[in-house]
Amino acid sequence: MTRRNRKKEFAMLAEYTRERSDLVDKISKKYPSLPFITAFIMAGDILSRKQADEWVASGEYGISEAGWNVGSFARVDWFADHYDNHSLGDNWLLRDFPTVWSLSDPDDTDPRFLNLWEKAWKLNGQTYLRDGNPDLDILPDAGMISIYRGQMKADGPLGISWSTSYEVAGKFARGAGLRVRASGVVINGRVKVSNVLGYLTGRGENEIVVNPKDVEVYE
User: Fold this and answer.
1) Where are the domains positioned within the chain?
2) What pTM, to 2 d.p., does this model score?
């Protein structure tokens, strides 16, 4: 490696470090209770969007391929931007969005994502969407099902991601979603099957996607 190339790489590393540090500060101010390591990982995921953008702009990769380079905390948001910009169509929303969601770690309290799920649900004939093997673990045709949600505070905002497994919810209560050890709570709920927007089993979390307003929370 020549000295000129080494200087260029050092300059790029310094710029990346500065940008990541600035993002960590912004994330920490927006979410004061967020662990530093989580904010650090989230900042790196946000910056990973640049590489994906460059690949798409150069034509080296298409949107669907490039998006998997984006870190899990920023991946759904990146794809959602392309959907909103009409670079991805409704076929993507029905076919690929559930899998992208299940393999990401988005802020599930963001109303933008609820809107996407509700639109996909309507396009799917008001039937919940699946990832992985849609023929496995089918929900009952009707009635109520018990669902659970792990989060840091009992009085915190409810997001759209729940699970049919109390054990899985417990892992999230202990910080699985934040990549740290934590001591949170499990929220118990019931919801009508007809209100379920998504049922995702590919990640082994038996995730139920639902509008929190449709959940009957109980002690």
Assistant:
1) 3-123, 129-218
2) 0.88
